[in-house]
Design a protein that fits this description.
The structure holds 2 protein chains of 2 kinds. Chain A is mainly beta. Chain A is built from 5 helices and 35 strands. Helix content of chain A is 7%, strand content 58%. By secondary structure, chain B is mostly beta strands. Chain B is 5% helix and 48% strand. Chain B has 2 helices and 29 strands. Chain B has a 5-stranded antiparallel beta sheet. The chains are: A mainly beta, B mainly beta. The interface between A and B is large, with 71 and 75 residues.
């Protein structure tokens, strides 16, 4: 099965490559215009600019995975179960993990089984840029599905770029650090011909994850009652990632094919509870995908984008603890995705677009305890989803920009063993505005309204104990107003200043929640919840240049959120803050650069919050804040570039939990060496 | 530079907003709430302990106490009385009992039985028993069911076990394998009757009651009863009342009565099968109080019944012992017991399992007297008599 998939993937890739290079050769005269392609694309300044971390800035942050890096964005919360191996999921503006779309090189990462993407799996090694869009990316040439997320995170891998006559790059990195962390990585980029280049990268991560953690309690008088330090067990990871991309361009377009394979074995450390300090659950993952995209301006006014993806995910979960139920399950998911989008410029200031996507998901679960050879799945589900979108964007007097989109989704729930869920369809609109009141001032006012939904996952519908096939999609409505102010100047101490403030009101209806069913600990899922979210995101950045080449950069981000449960006035938690959403959170990054030296300090604060629905003392979770420091030095030995980094994380050695009973590592260190040719 | 100062001021403002600072976590304090009942220094029993299960992984098992003498509800007593216990009471409380002067709490996912002084709730010690479920006592010994027995017999499908614990030394003295995933047990003369669920083997549930003689601690018989057994209680005539959970799908929950085969026999057998679903029960005199919760697929809600059965006639006396309509306030009944002298009925509500529950008190006519907030998933109750 695995081999077969692999072979098919190879065939597809070779086929695609052949087709792509063939289509590239149709335009032999386009070679010289390659570099202009990017510039040629009509510059339409984004209505709602993204929060972005990229390049040098991203490299200086003490971040290991994508999940670590996006903590510096405002308006989102990370659930982190601790360590390199621990699950890390993102919640944008309190609407829930399932409402956040995560895109890898422009195509969404899916998980039809539980709707969650573990961002801890994506290391920063090959990532060049991370962007967070609230609402949606304000470019109307995008796939239909991209109009469907309430908030989106775009991960973009490093694209090959070659200076002058150099046509090959080799970069080797190694990171090592506390808790047996070893992380070598290799990247190779080659210019095959003037308009086709290839990039491959491979990375191995291994960590014992045996970090120390500490639990302490004092009584009301302040006397210490217990103070215990222990070592996390079963938190090890061994992961390998290999990816390869082909990038090319021709006269009026560009294309790429990208293949990704990730395989890992890890321990699931589990909750630390009284008398239980060790668990023995193991998880093996294999995630592979092959995707291609083609941007082609067929006519001067007509641009198109085509995306294709095939993904295959395999998860093997084992519980070896003889004290509890032995479990040995395998879950397989497959996804096929096709998308075609077109944008037509009606006038120089008015564009319209359309897109159609089709996605097919298939899921099978096997119980290896009973069915060793995986002959008959214990459960299966298949779903076909069609997305159709239409969007328009226009500009009035270069000052007012308007974008409107509408997306219709049809879900065909195809087959499964128990009752079939009914087919669903849903229409969701969005309107985005931005206005620049003064031509000379870079002050832009912005506003948006958007409705998005999330389809129930296979687990919601069918499997977590007792799924509920009658579930409706969960909808989130967002209203946002804000402004952004930018100022740049040369030859002054103040080089850049950036300030952005947004206020928003979100409402989540038909929220899918677990509900007790029957006498025992059995759950079903129902559309019960309603959540109201009011929030403010603010961010500020500035760059100061001092004499003698000292450059100081600062970035501060603050989020206020009130996310209350308004489901039912008779609930004890009516109008209480929903679990794990702090009222206050924020971060600060200060970077100091002097020549080839740079020092970066980052601070993250997450305020008090509650770990269950009721805001009572028993559920109170304390604030946490960490300080991280990185020192970096670059130098050249002949043609070889070298970079050395040293990091201290959780400098103040704080013992904290992000998720109740999942302790986080205390002070730890990382060192890195990068060699670039 | 003026602007620099402005920026610094702004940064300071942000820092000030992040005002909440972190301290070493406080031992969760006990809360005292007056109950609307008269103070009665001579009340017997003096009080009632309530064990809240807490959702799995939350480590929020907790003990509350209803003080009948001082008319107080004492919430979360364990942590404050035993502040030095690392990570408090533990994860998922499954049973609470008193034997002699000691209070025993079986903490399922902490794989231990906590032993406390029944008068003060102060910890005496703990007995480590993997995946322990319920405890009963006989002749100075505690008998604890466990979902997992000795793995050596069949590593792929380990049988459950009953652990024998000496109540003085608090050591495991012996253990015996019984059926699959045993739940409640009951002591009747020199025998233990153990209800086997087989819950880990669904849909191939166990369907037997294991009979264990306590002298040699040997399983001498497995009585076929019904699938997925849960509760077993003895009435004052020596009959055993056994509940089955059914398969949550086609086979409904049922109530079985086991009695001696004939007057001279010691062997028990199923004499009656009542088509009454039963989730939990409490026998007081000749009355068996019970409730049942069943999921109705069509209506997408639970059907709940609160009834009384006469243990002599095995007839249903009423199917709504709450008479004033206040049962509508209960979302998921999760525990039941009856005051031995006043006849007050206590029913707990676990709500959605992840928020505080409620303890409701009804008088013997089924009218609500009071309600009070509990910990998460209030489930198991035991009366305390000094």
């Amino acid at each position: 099965m695995g081999n077969d998939t692999c072979r098919r993937a190879m065939c597809l890739m070779v086929g695609l490559y052949g087709w792509m290079s063939a289509s590239a050769q149709i335009h032999p005269d386009s070679i010289r215009s390659l570099n202009e392609v990017v510039v040629k694309a009509k510059t339409y300044k984004e209505i709602i600019p993204a929060q972005t971390l990229k390049g040098e800035e991203l490299r200086k942050l003490n971040s290991f995975s994508v999940a670590d890096a996006i903590r510096y964005f405002s308006g989102l919360q990370i659930k982190d179960y601790g360590g390199v191996a621990g699950l890390k999921t993102v919640n944008i503006r309190s609407m829930g993990t399932n409402h956040a779309g995560v895109y890898y090189n422009g195509i969404q990462l899916g998980n039809a089984q539980n709707g969650q993407v573990d961002l801890g799996k994506f290391s920063l090694d090959n990532i060049e840029e991370i962007s967070l869009y609230n609402g949606q990316k304000s470019d109307i040439l995008q796939s239909a599905r991209e109009f469907g997320s309430s908030g989106s995170i775009y991960l973009t891998t490093r694209r090959p770029r070659f200076k002058d006559s150099i046509n090959a790059h080799l970069m080797a990195k190694v990171k090592f650090g506390s808790y047996g962390l070893l992380n070598p990585a290799l990247l190779y980029e080659h210019k095959l011909c003037a308009n086709v280049s290839v990039a491959t990268s491979a990375e191995w991560i291994t960590s014992k994850g045996n970090y120390k953690f500490r639990y302490r309690r004092v009584d009301a008088s302040g006397a210490l009652k217990y103070d215990t330090t222990a070592v996390r067990h079963n938190s090890d990871i061994d992961a390998l990632r290999i990816d390869a991309g082909l990038y090319g361009g021709f006269g009026t377009g560009k294309w790429n094919v990208f293949a990704y394979h990730y395989t890992s074995e890890r321990g699931i450390p589990g909750a630390i509870v009284n008398n239980v300090w060790k668990r023995s659950e193991r998880l093996w993952d294999r995630n592979s995908f092959l995707q291609g995209s083609l941007d082609w301006d067929i006519l001067p006014k007509l641009s198109t984008r085509t995306n294709v993806k095939y993904a295959s995910d395999y998860t093997h979960y084992v519980n070896n603890d003889t004290d509890i139920k032995l479990t040995d399950n395998v879950y397989k998911q497959r996804e096929l995705y096709l998308s075609w989008a077109a944008r037509y410029a009606l006038r120089s200031n008015w564009d319209v677009s359309m897109a159609y996507d089709f996605q097919w998901n298939d899921y099978e679960g096997f119980d290896l305890e009973k069915d060793e050879d995986m002959e008959t799945p214990m459960n299966t589900a298949t779903r076909g989803t069609h997305y159709i979108s239409a969007a328009t964007a226009f500009t009035v007097g270069d000052r007012l920009k308007v974008q409107a989109s509408i997306l219709e989704t049809f879900v065909n729930e195809e087959k499964r063993q128990r009752d079939k869920a009914p087919n669903k369809s849903k229409v969701t609109p969005g309107v985005f505005l931005s206005y620049q009141p003064w031509k000379k001032q870079e002050l832009v006012l912005r506003a948006f309204y958007k409705t998005a939904y999330r389809m129930p996952t296979f687990n919601d519908l069918y499997y977590t104990d007792m799924g509920n096939p009658a579930l409706l999609p969960e909808t989130a409505t967002q209203y946002n107003v804000g402004f952004v102010y930018d100022r740049s100047q040369e030859d002054n101490t103040f080089r850049n200043f950036h300030l952005a403030v947004d206020a928003y009101y979100n409402e989540v209806k038909n929220k899918i929640v677990s509900w007790p069913q029957g006498p025992q600990f059995r759950w079903t899922t129902i559309n019960l919840g309603r959540v109201e979210i009011k929030g403010i995101d603010a961010s500020m950045a500035c760059t100061l240049a001092f004499p003698y080449g000292w450059i100081l950069t600062g970035k501060v981000q603050y989020t206020y959120q009130e996310a209350i449960d308004v489901t039912n006035p008779s609930d004890t938690y009516y109008r209480d803050q929903i679990p794990y959403i702090p009222w206050h959170s924020g971060s600060a990054i200060v970077g100091l650069t002097w020549g080839t030296w740079s020092l970066n300090y980052s601070f993250i604060y997450v305020g008090e919050r509650y770990n269950q629905q009721e805001n009572i003392a028993y559920n109170h979770t304390q604030p946490w804040y960490t300080s991280d420091i990185t020192l970096m030095k670059e130098f050249h030995v002949g043609k070889v570039g070298l970079r050395i980094t040293a990091e201290v994380n959780n400098l103040l050695d704080q013992d904290y939990d992000v998720v109740l009973n999942y302790p986080m590592p205390m002070r730890n260190y990382k060192f890195g060496l990068t060699v670039e040719i | 530079m003026n602007r620099t100062r402005k920026i610094l001021a702004a940064a300071l403002c942000v820092a000030a907003l992040l005002n909440g600072c972190r301290e070493i976590e406080l031992v969760v304090p006990t809360e005292y709430e007056p109950l609307p009942m008269p103070v009665n220094p001579a009340a017997t029993p003096a009080g009632m302990y309530l064990l809240n299960e807490g959702n799995m992984g939350s480590n929020k098992a907790s003990i509350d106490y209803v003080d009948f003498r001082n008319a107080y509800y004492v919430r979360n007593i364990y942590a404050e009385r035993n502040p030095e216990v690392v990570k408090e009471l533990g994860d998922v409380g499954n049973d609470i009992q008193i034997y002699g002067s000691k209070l025993y709490a079986v903490i399922n996912c902490s794989h231990k039985m906590e032993v406390m002084d029944a008068a003060t709730c102060r910890r005496i010690g703990q007995v480590d028993i993997p995946n322990c479920r319920y405890v009963r006592f006989s002749k100075g010994k505690a008998y604890v069911t466990s979902y997992v027995g000795p793995v050596a017999i069949d590593p792929d499908a380990p049988l459950g076990a009953v652990y024998e614990v000496d109540t003085t030394s608090l050591r495991v003295t012996r253990q015996v394998a019984v059926g699959y995933q045993p739940d409640e047990l009951e002591v009747s003369s020199e025998y233990l009757y153990v209800a086997n669920s087989g819950g880990y083997r669904a849909p191939n549930y166990d369907s037997t009651v294991s009979v264990v003689e306590t002298y040699g601690l040997k399983q001498i018989q497995q009585i076929p009863v019904g699938i997925n057994l849960h509760r077993v209680r003895r009435d004052r005539y020596g009959k055993l009342w056994v509940t089955s959970r059914g398969d949550y799908n086609h086979i409904p929950s049922k109530l079985f009565v086991l009695d001696r085969k004939d007057k001279n026999s010691k062997e028990m057998t199923v004499t009656d099968t009542l088509d009454i679903p039963c989730s939990e029960m409490y026998i007081q005199g000749d009355s068996l109080y019970f409730y049942s919760v069943e999921w109705n697929k069509q209506a997408e809600r639970n059907t709940v019944t609160y009834g009384i059965i006469d243990v002599r006639t095995k007839q249903l006396l009423t199917d709504h012992f709450i008479t004033d309509g206040t049962e509508a306030d209960i979302i998921i009944p999760y525990g039941i017991c009856v005051h031995p002298t006043t006849g007050d009925i206590y029913v707990t509500d676990a709500k959605n399992y992840v928020s505080s529950g409620v303890l409701h008190c009804y008088d013997r006519q089924g009218r609500k007297k009071w309600s009070v907030r509990t910990g998460d998933i209030p489930a198991h109750m035991v009366f305390y008599n000094p």
